[in-house]
Amino acid sequence: MAQCVQSVLEFIQDSFVPMVAVLSSKEADRLTRKNNLNFSELLRPFCRLTSEGHIRDPNNQLQTVKNLRICVNNVVTTPTPSSAALSPAQYRQLGEVVLSCQPLEGALATAMRTGDYNLSLSVTTPWFETYRENFLQLMPASEHEFLNHYLACLLVVSSTEAVPVEQFLKLSQEQHRIQHSGEYTNPKWFIPNTLKYYVLLHDVSEGDDQRAETVYEDMKQRYGPQGCYLLKVNSRSSSAGEEEQIPDPWSQYLHKNNLRNQDVLDLTPAAAENSVDATEVDDGYSEERDGAVEAGSPDTHPLQLDADSSSASLRTLNDVSMDLKKGPRDPDSAAGGGGGGGGGGHGACLTLNDHDHIRQFIQEFTFRGLLPHIEKNIRQLNDQLVSRKGLSRSLFTATKKWFGGGKAPEKSISEPKSTCGLLYPPEAPELQIRKMADLCFLVQHYELAYSCYHTAKKDFLSDQAMLYAAGALEMAAVSAFLQGGAPRPYPAHYMDTAIQTYRDVCRNMVLAERCALLSAEILKSQAKYSEAATLLIKMTSEDSDLRSALLLEQAGHCFINMRSPMVRKFAFHMILAGHRFSKAGQRKHALRCYTQAMQVYKDRGWSLAEDHINFTIGRQSFTLGQQDTAVAAFKQILVNDSRQLATQQVAFLREYLYVHKCVLEDDEAGLPQLPLPFIHSSATRVYFGHERRLAEGEKQAATHVSLDQEYDPDLSAMWCHLEEQLVASANRGLVPVNFQPTQCCLNSQTDNLRPPLAVVEEPIIVEVTFRNPLKVPLALSDLSLLWGFTPADGLPGEPGEPGAGQEAAPSQVGTLHRGNVLPEPECSRRVVFSVCLMLQVLQDDDAVTTEIITEFHLGPEETKMARLKLLPHRTGQLNIEGVVYSLASSGEMSSSSEAGQQPADLLVRGRQDLKIQGPRLNLTKEDKMLVRHGTDRRLEPVVTPPMPLMEVFFLQFPTALLCGEIRKAYVEFCNVSGVALRGLRVASTHPDFFTFGNSASTPSTSPPASPESCSAYQTLASPFRPGAAAAEALVSAGDFSQPSGVMQIPVEAGALQPGDSIQLPLWLRGPDQEGVHEISFLFYYESAEKGLKLSHRVLRHTVFICASRSLSVQASTCRSTAPPPHGSPEDRGSGGTLVFIDVENVNTSEGGVREFHIVQVSSSSQHWRLHKYINPDKDKDCKLSSRERTKLCFKAARCKPPPAPSDATHKYTFADLNLGNERIISSSTPCGDFFFRCCRTPEGQQAEPTSSRQSSGGKSQMFAPAQNRTADITSIAKKCNEFDLNIIVIWKAYVVEDNKQLILEGQLHVALQTIGKEASSLTPKEEAQEMMLLKFKSDLPPTVVAPFPELSQLIKTNLHYPETFQHRFTQDSLCLVPVTLTLSNCSLAQIDVIVDLRHKSTSSDSLDVHGSFAWVGQSQHKLQLPPQQVCSVTLRACFCRPGVYNLNTPRVFAKPAEQSAMCESSQQTASPALIIITNA
């Protein structure tokens, strides 16, 4: 139970107090009415004694009476109902008492933490204490007990009476007649000899003090000084000024008395039948008038949510809500009859001295009259009982049973004698014992009272008088508890038996309730909360909702106050209590109970319980006029992911819409925040610019950026890298410090730290994601964006727009905020929104045009995006605040549309703000410890001046190509804005995929030809001549390549004017690797105007090309062993280099390709060129079918030296060897363009050795480290084997498509870098690397050996000799043959050469071949060869017999001449040189 103001001892003592009646004359009543009081009310605030009293018990022991209070009431002879139930009026009065006692607004609640629950509860329940106090005072007097019977009667006469003594006599006779005549059943009197106390009331302001004293002296002579009193009141007149503020102690007591004395004749007969109906008859709080279905149905479960009842209720509940706003009934107006006076305060004629006189009177009456009277009666009753102890109790009891004992059973004889209908006569001994026990209890002699109750209990049980026995058990238990020193424990079983007997046997719920209230308070004082809760729950029933509600609430407090609090039981019983409060018409208390229970169920996964609680809180709050609380509760139901059925959710939605509509009617301040549908604010995307145009005929528009594309961080980084290249190209190779990549579409993953830039007259599209959490459809209408705008020119904004420099207030932003109405049909234009497929309206404004979606439907549990547009017309700051729309249930709109009327009754206009959190910060330690978010300004665009806007279209752009295939397409650039554009550039992820031609080529504006007759190459008629030298051309690399990878697009006059367009050819080349390739283009352009905030714009385009296999080309080179012919300066130093090209058709006949024709082989290099085509078979055409392969051989020579040495590093020699009747000019577009884009130039490769030579050349020789000398040797060796030659193989293929033969063209590139090393046109696949075992201990570093395998190719050797030589061995046994050894220096350094003619004897193979011949003459030659020079050495070979001999036995050693400390390296020898010696 909750904490009470009174202790349990004070509560029980105040529940059972001595009763004193009052009979007053009319003149006395007149005197008291001057104070708006009658005499009993005048005494009531002073009825508690402040000093102790004393009595002596029958054993003459002195007993102290502490804190005694008496109850003084007027004598009322009106019949009262039986004690089994209160009257309907009394039930109604109790309801008003509870209703009038509410928790104070703003009162501090007690915070409680138990487990993981944080509760805020009201510790005290003053409404329960008030109910309990009034209930005990309203209890009618009963025949089986005497505690509320009158012990004394005050006879009050005014001193202004003519003969006061005669008035006293009349009043005394009246009291005697009421008590003993038998005409009146009320009031009940305790004993026949009632104490009469005579009070002379003297009005000091108008009476005669001397006469009053004389009358009082006469009274003392007649009644004794202990039986009368002179009370002086009204020391000041009512007309006196109010200069002295006298306290009013009567106000808190008056309504209690008035509740007991109200007339009950206004009740209807039907209301008097049941206490529930009696409670509901009250026309301020009846559930019948509220229209709630569950009010009169006891079968309604507290947790039941009925769709029919909930959907029809709030409109009816609204009718009574205005009455409840007036507050509870005024107690003073209800008590007007009891007060007996007019308006004004109480005690107006009384002074503080008069208060003291009244207090002294009560004390004199109690100590000198009442307590001695009680003491005398206790002695008399005790003597009577003691005198009867001589008789046997068993015989006495048996005699009563045989002869009836004077008892008169009230019920028929057929009923069992164990009923509660047995009545004892007043003189019965059992009742005398009960009287003595009650008297002892009233004067706090609890030990003697318990003994008497216990004795009476046995007698009552033996007589089967269950009502009397239950009363004795009840008071025995209370007396046992109240005994000082606790000689015996509290007999809780006595109380349990008494309650069961009252309720089940006697059918007396009033006495059972009193017994339960007493026992629960006692159990609570002993911390037995579980037993108290069980007792209170048992007392709940359907006969009184108010009682059940109060007891269930107290049971809930018992559960929460346990040593281990039972939180969920507390919440459950609070819900039950709230339900019963609601049925009893106590809506405020019901709301409070549900609110406290919500603390336990909230966010715990009890979704159905939460829905029930929120729904009830919403309805109760709405009825009580608490509109904001009602809206919040219904909003909570709709926001959570409800598991209710669809029909129940429809009811919830209707209730919410109706409540919100009523709130809006009362408050017109602004648009409310709506909970439905749910908006994923973080998923909001903002797109700047027009939507992409679709393809027009054969034109394919650039893909650019659209809201239909998913965001990819890797792609975004790639686009940013391309844009950096373009910006650097436009700014002389430097990226500006304030560069920010262009972001056309902003989302949660983009960089939103800075406000985005929008352009005037270009739309801003905001994609808002809506989610319907309900299982019922939702209908949104008139959906648009809510915005604020601050002009950049500093002018004040339009009405509804904030002025310059101001923040956009929600009530001022946007055109829709001016009235929240749609524009008139004649001033609006309508468009169709393709995404939502709903009719839309554009609302025009000077600053921004807002697009409105007239209808937007969301299905059950559907997530859907709405794209809302704004079109800015002025520069400035635009803030997008949220969305505004009208919400309705889709079912309501459909039913209303079928009926032909607008659903205005359930249509709510509101808004939702777009509150976007930035990314969580995680940089500093504070950021990691706390939850901090950065800024996100995607909804705060800055509107900039007009910018050019370009659209790009592609014509004849293929989707599939063969590897290396060349295709010609066209690109059209259109300026669709009102501003000229310039600086058109493009960058791509695959710069080798396309070309616009070199700077020398002029753009073609002619319409594209048909693909059948179109050739991408420039050709010349040149018949095939075997053995002819290649056609050569010298080209500058700067005409083709662009170092930054950015290609400038040629535009006439340097700018594209507004509305103009230009069409340019575009050559494409299929990727070298097969598969699907994603190729991205980024077009860059600027405005012709300078100083704009938006410096440039970009346009994205992405294509997917499917590349199929065509040809595979492998090429290799080797030095020819044939001696160079005399007189050929181009072969000097090269000795004739051969190039072998192996071509294979790897196409699998995809796309209908029949065969490939190799029409030309070209080369490009700064140092080498293809010189001749070696064709032994003299074939004119070289064609390859599927899986066929051919090998071509060419002779290479060094390039001719350029005329100007300064141009040598920039000029490339193109050599063309056509195999057909026409020659393709490889040095022009597109062949030359793709060569420079696909092949690596040797300039970068030459940079490293050049830099290394420069770095080492500045040091002295003595300090040069060994690694520098090694690098020089390596560079010399590499240059010896370098072969910088790029091969271009041009082919044609014939394809049959749609019964037409198409000619496909293409080119493949092979870069030869090293002599003897094969190169291929296909990129080799990377092999998987072997997993290395982890070593924990490093091995010793191996000995560094510096081999130089490259030095073995410094010198090229050739032997010149006759193939057959005849000799007559019969004449001369030795045959001498002259042999010339030619040594060629292949390097660019001076070389020291040693020729050793001695045979190497380690090889067994060589012995067989040359074992019978020897070199004669000088066996070792040493000579020095200048760079790229040839030297001959004459040798002689000696043979002993005929045979075949290998002359290639001389060993040649060489080293650079400047490396004096280095050993010579053995040079590679050529193939075997065989000579045939015959005998002539």
Give a brief rundown of this model.
The protein is an alpha+beta fold and 1480 residues long. The protein contains 35 helices and 57 strands. The protein is elongated and about 195 Å long.
Model description:
It contains 35 helices and 57 strands. With 1480 residues, the protein is α+β, with helices and mostly antiparallel strands. Strands 10, 11, 13, 14, 15, 16, 17, 18, 19, 20, 21, 22 and 23 form a 13-stranded mixed beta sheet that branches. Strands 12, 24, 26, 28, 30, 33, 38, 40, 42, 44 and 45 form an 11-stranded antiparallel beta sheet that branches. Strands 25, 27, 31, 32, 34 and 35 form a 6-stranded mixed beta sheet that branches.
- Global morphology: elongated
Cα radius of gyration in angstroms: 59 Å
Mean pLDDT across residues = 78
Q: In terms of structural class, how would the helical and strand content be classed?
A: alpha+beta
Number of strands: 57
Low-confidence stretches: 259-312, 316-343, 390-419, 795-840, 893-903, 1001-1005, 1241-1267, 1326-1331, 1343-1347, 1403-1410
What is the number of helical segments per DSSP (H or I, 4+ residues)?
A: 35
Strand percentage: 25-35%
Helix content: 25-40%
Oligomeric state of the chains present here: single chain
Kindly, what is the distance between the CA atoms of the first and last residues, rounded to a whole number of angstroms?
143 Å
Largest sheet: 13 strands, mixed
